[in-house]
Specification:
12 helices, five-stranded antiparallel beta sheet, alpha+beta, binds manganese (II) ion, binds (2S)-amino(hydroxy)ethanoic acid, Aminopeptidase, Alpha-Beta Plaits, about 400 residues, nine-stranded mixed beta sheet, globular, about 20% strand
Length: about 400
C-alpha cells in the first residue's frame, strides 16, 4: 500500500487556529459544551468541512458530521472518525480537537489523492464529551449510541442552571437528524494519551485495546453554620471538615491499594463560604475509575460505607447523586491489530494499552467495532494549558489513522 501522508501544515495550522478560539480575558481556553465560545469552534469546524466539499449534518443533540459519500458507495455503512471539540476549563489545545481535525485531514488527503473508498467516510465532533457543564460526560456520543434518550439529554440542567436543549438552540446547533442516523461500519478515534505511559516508555503510538470504567457522584453534606470563634470543637456540625475527611479517605484508600484505581475530588463548594463561619453545607464531586468493573463497584461500596459512618461520627446529613456510571469497555481486536500493523509498516514504536480517560469511542463501541490510537502527551499532562504533543508525533499519529482508514476501506 503506497504511503500517503497527510498535510502536516494544514493539520497543525488548524489545530493552532481552533486552539485560539474560545480564550477568556486571561488567555485561558474555555469552550464548554453549547457555550458561545464553543459555538465559535463549531462554526470554524463546519466551515472547514464545507470547504473540503463534504456534506454537513447535525443531529438533535448537536453532534456534527462531515460526510464523504462518493457515488456508488453512498449506501454502505460508513467508516466513522472523530472525537470532540468542547473543552474543560483552562484546557490544552489537543484534547479532542486533534482527533476531529485529523479525521477531517485524512478524508481531505484521500480525496486529493483520488482514493475511492469502498464505503463512505465520516468525521464526527460529538457534543459535550467533557461533561464539565452538563453531566454525564461523553453525552453526545452516548445519545448517539442509544445509551441515553435524546429528550432526556436535552433537558439536562447544567452547573450554571442552563438547559442543554435551550443552549443548543441558542447557538444554532439543535440539529434535525436523529441521533444514530448513520450506523458506523467501524469507528476509530485518534487522541492524545493524556497520561505518562508512551513518553515514559519512549514509544510513539498506543493501540488502545480497552478503556477503564468511570463513576461520577455529587455528594452534599449538611451541617450547621456557627461562629468560628465561639463554637467549641465538640459542639460543631462542620460540613467542611466532614468533606475534607472524604477527600483524605479516597486518596489514602487509592494509595494503599496496589490497583490502578484512581479517585478525584475535582469540585468543592462550601456554604456560606465565609472565613469566620463553620460551613453548613459542603457540595463536592467524586470521580472514581478502574479498568476492572468488580473493583470499581467495590470502591463505590467502600465510599458509601465510609459516608454512612461519617454521618454518624460528625452528626451531619449526607446525600449522594449519581452523575455518570460507565463500565469498562473492550475495543475491537481486529482494528487494534490493524493499528499495530500500520505502525509496523511505518516502523513506528507502538504498544497496546488501556485508556485512563473517557472518550467518545467508549460509547460508539456499543454500536460498532471501535478502537483508538494514542500519541504521547509531554509529561503526561492534560486538562491543563501545558498539554503538549510534538508536531512530528501529531503528524505520525494522523498518518497511522490514514493507513488504518485505507486498510478498512480498501476492501473490494
Ligand atoms: O473525563 C474524562 O475522562 C474525559 O476527559 N471526559
Ligand atoms: Mn478528550
Ligand atoms: Mn478531556
Amino acid at each position: 500500500m503506497s504511503n500517503y501522508s497527510i498535510s502536516s501544515a494544514r493539520l497543525l495550522g488548524r489545530l493552532g487556529e481552533l486552539g485560539s478560539i474560545g480564550r477568556d480575558g486571561d488567555g485561558r481556553l474555555i469552550r464548554l459544551a453549547a457555550s458561545d465560545t464553543e459555538k465559535l469552534g463549531r462554526d470554524k469546524f463546519v466551515s472547514w468541512i464545507e470547504a473540503a466539499g463534504l456534506k454537513v449534518a447535525v443531529d438533535r443533540i448537536g453532534n456534527i458530521f462531515g460526510i464523504w459519500a462518493p457515488g456508488g458507495v453512498a449506501d454502505a455503512a460508513p467508516l466513522m472518525l472523530g472525537s470532540h471539540i468542547d473543552t474543560v476549563i483552562n484546557a490544552g489545545i489537543y484534547d479532542g480537537c486533534y482527533g476531529v481535525l485529523a479525521g477531517l485531514e485524512v478524508i481531505e488527503t484521500l480525496r486529493e489523492a483520488g482514493f475511492v473508498p469502498s464505503r463512505p467516510i465520516v468525521v464526527a465532533a460529538f457534543t459535550n464529551e467533557e461533561g464539565v457543564r452538563y453531566a454525564p460526560d461523553m453525552m453526545g456520543s452516548l445519545v448517539y449510541a442509544g445509551g441515553l434518550d435524546v429528550d432526556t439529554a436535552l433537558a439536562t440542567v447544567g452547573t450554571d442552571g442552563s438547559k442543554l436543549g435551550d443552549e443548543l438552540r441558542r447557538i444554532g446547533y439543535a440539529g434535525d437528524r436523529a441521533p444514530g442516523f448513520l450506523k458506523p461500519h467501524a469507528y476509530i478515534e485518534l487522541h492524545i494519551e493524556q497520561g505518562p505511559v508512551l513518553e515514559r516508555e519512549g514509544l510513539l503510538l498506543g493501540a488502545v485495546e480497552n478503556l477503564q470504567g468511570i463513576s461520577w457522584q455529587r455528594v452534599t453534606i449538611e451541617g450547621d453554620a456557627n461562629h468560628a470563634g465561639t463554637t467549641p470543637i465538640s459542639m460543631r456540625r462542620d460540613a467542611g471538615f466532614a468533606a475534607a475527611r472524604v477527600v483524605t479517605f479516597l486518596r489514602e484508600r487509592a494509595k494503599a491499594s496496589n490497583t490502578p484505581t484512581v479517585a478525584t475530588v475535582g469540585c468543592m463548594e462550601f456554604q456560606p463560604n465565609a472565613i469566620n463561619v463553620i460551613p453548613s453545607r459542603a457540595t463536592f464531586t467524586v470521580d472514581l475509575r478502574d479498568p476492572d468493573e468488580d473493583r470499581l463497584s467495590q470502591e463505590e461500596a467502600a465510599l458509601a460505607r465510609f459516608l454512612e459512618a461519617l454521618s454518624a461520627e460528625e452528626d451531619v446529613t449526607i446525600s449522594v447523586e449519581r452523575l455518570a456510571r460507565f463500565e469498562p469497555v473492550k475495543f475491537d481486536e481486529r482494528i487494534v491489530a490493524t493499528i499495530e500493523e500500520a505502525a509496523k509498516l511505518r516502523a513506528l514504536p507502538c504498544r497496546r494499552m488501556t485508556s485512563g480517560a473517557g472518550h467518545d469511542a467508549q460509547m460508539i463501541a456499543r454500536i460498532a467495532p471501535t478502537a483508538m490510537i494514542f500519541v504521547p502527551s509531554k509529561g503526561g499532562i492534560s486538562h491543563n494549558p501545558k498539554e503538549f504533543t510534538a508536531d512530528d508525533d501529531l503528524v505520525a499519529g494522523a498518518d497511522i489513522l490514514l493507513d488504518v482508514v485505507r486498510a478498512l476501506t480498501d476492501e473490494e
